[in-house]
Structures are given as structure tokens and as C-alpha cells.
Amino acid sequence: MTPLHKVLKNRDTSINPIWIMRQAGRYLPEFREIRKKNPDFIKLCLNEKLSSEITLQPLKRFDLDAAIIFSDILMLPYGLNQKVEFKKNFGPLLGDLDLNEISKLDEVDFVEKVYPVYKAINLVSNHELTNSKSTIGFVGAPWTLLVYMINKQSPKLKLKEDFFSDEFLINRILIALERFLKLHIKNQVENGAEVIQIFDSWAGLLEEKDLPNFVYIPTLNLVEYTKTLNVPVICFPRGIKNYKNYCEIVKPDGVCIDYEVDPLNIIKDINIPVQGGMDPKVLLSDKENIKNQAKKYLDIFKDHPYIFNLGHGILPETNPEMMDYLVKFVKDYK
Ligand code: CP3
Q1: Which residues of the chain form beta strands (DSSP E)?
Q2: Is the CB of 119 within 6 Å of ligand 1?
Q3: With a threshold of 0.85, does the pTM exceed it?
Q4: Which pLDDT score, from 0 to 100, does residue 189 have?
């Protein structure tokens, strides 16, 4: 059994596996090297040779317990024929949404468009660097994908006034998302993903009253589906106020917490395995501070099944040496 499975399935509290969100990314010079020669981000995600190589880059440097496949949550709208591009210093930019296109789309068309993602998972999970480690597949949660598909770019701090105005459109998109997200999860699992993480990066934009319709119910459907595939699922509802309600309703195998929640409240309220929490900015400081902050999380979750991670992705300006220090510290912690 891999360390992540021991924590997620057996609720083992004697180990603290570690992996880091965005561990394959811009803070690594070897990633920037490849990225420089591949300006089209989507094309890079669809090059299974390069995307599997990028996925393995952090595992060559650090003693991590999992490989998360180098891809993006926006491969889903891309697979649904919505135009997706990544502009430098701006982030994702999506094209107009054509409901007719989406309604016409069948599963074969979708799989054909994103097929290299599954091939990359296959390459990574069969690679010797992931022996006794988990290969993590992932999807965006329906809500977060809906935000990108309608807003067509990152929403920054709040949604546009008229975001919810076209109820028909929203419902049709949510129906399509459920169908194709299940397919995307299934294909990742069939190709070697041993854990699935569901990223709900914009869950925090919703008011409490809207959570059931847009977050709880659509995510619960995916969690239940993933469980039928016999693969543990971790949810990351970034920015929500009430992790307790979320866990009780959505029932993932593990919950990833963001850096704004107090881990002392989490340990009181939540009995499922926990992942993450430490502020990525800590890695921009010094080793003493990194040690103290990492120790804080490890101490609090000492008798709780816990996977070490950050409370959001590692920042591009992080020095890889600090990442190295962190991984070693977590591994040596007793
Ligand atoms: O190492 C890993 O974690 C796996 C790869 C991964 C990426 N994106 C690669 C990526 C994962 C799991 C994601 C998830 C993702 N993508 C989320 C959810 C997590 C989160 O960050 O909240 C979201 C919201 C996206 C959408 C997205 N992709 C944005 C907003 C951006 C631009 C912002 C940025 O960091 O540049 C991306 C681009 C992106 N996805 C990069 C990487 C490595 C940077 C690409 C580059 O310019 O080199």
C-alpha cells in the first residue's frame, strides 16, 4: 500500500506523507526550460512525453510520496470545445461558450481531444520513480469550472453581477460537466491514477445559501462516483468558511484545507483524513520559519491521519532549496 493510501484508507497516523500542489511548475528551472520552448500551454499538456517528464521532475529532486499529473483543470472545457488559452501575466482566457456544441458532443469526441492526458498518466504510473508512490489524477469541481466557463477568465475577488442571470445555461452546463467529469475521472483511473483530487478553487466566492446547489450536490455526485471506482478522493474547497458541513455532506476520503483556516478548528471539527494548510508564502521566508510553521501543522495533526501539503499551490518565486528543506524536515519529523 502506498503512503497516501495508508492515510486515506487505513487512517494511519504513524506516517506523514508529503506532496505539494503545483509541485511540477514554474519554481523549477528544468520546468521553465521546457516551458520556454513550448509557449502553448494546452499543447504542452497534450504532449504526453513532455507532460509525463514534467510530472516526474519534482520526484527526481525531492523525496515526495506522490506524483500529480501535469495537466490543468481547464482541459475539461477544452475537451468540450470551448477555446482555452493561457496568456502570459494574465492567466487563462476562454472563448465563447456554445451550448449547441456542448450538447452535440459525444464521449468519443471528448476522449479523443484529451487522450494524451491519459497516456501521460499511464507513463507516469508505470515509471520506476513512482514505485510505492501514488499517481494523483485530478479534476476541477463543477462549480469552479462553471466559473471559468461563464466568466471566461479568473474571477479575482468576486463574480460579475449577472453571473447567475441565465439559469437555463447554468443548468445545462452543470449537466454536461457532471457527465464529462465522470468520464474524465474514469479514464484517469483506468490509466493508473490511484488517488483523485477535486479542486474547488472558487468555492469561497459563494454565499452559504448557494453552496448546496453549486458545491455540495455536484461534488457529492463526483465523490460517490469516484468511490465506486475504488479510488480514494480528496476534495479541496478553497475558501469555504465551514469545512465541517462540507465534509459531513460531501464525504470525501480526505479534505485539503486552505491556508486561511485555523488548523486548531479543523482538528476539533473534522474526523476524516486532512491534507495541507501551510501558507505557500512561508516557503519564501527562511529555514527557521519554514521549520516552525511545518512543525505547527505536524504537531496539531500528530494523532490525526494527515498528508502534508500547502494551503494552495507552491509560488513560482519559491527557491527549490527551500522546498528541499521542507520535504526533508517533514520526512524526518517524529
Ligand atoms: O503540479 C501540479 O499541481 C499539477 C498541475 C496543475 C496545474 N494546474 C498546472 C498549471 C494542477 C493540479 C492545476 C490545477 C488548476 N488549474 C487549478 C486548481 C488549483 C488552484 O490553483 O486553485 C486552477 C484554478 C487552474 C487554472 C489555472 N491554470 C490558472 C488560474 C492558471 C494561471 C495562473 C498561474 O499559476 O499561472 C493556470 C496555469 C497553470 N496550470 C500553470 C501550471 C504549472 C502555469 C503555467 C505556466 O505559465 O507555466
Answers
A1: 66-68, 84-87, 91-94, 134-140, 195-199, 233-236, 254-257, 274-276, 306-307
A2: no
A3: yes
A4: 98
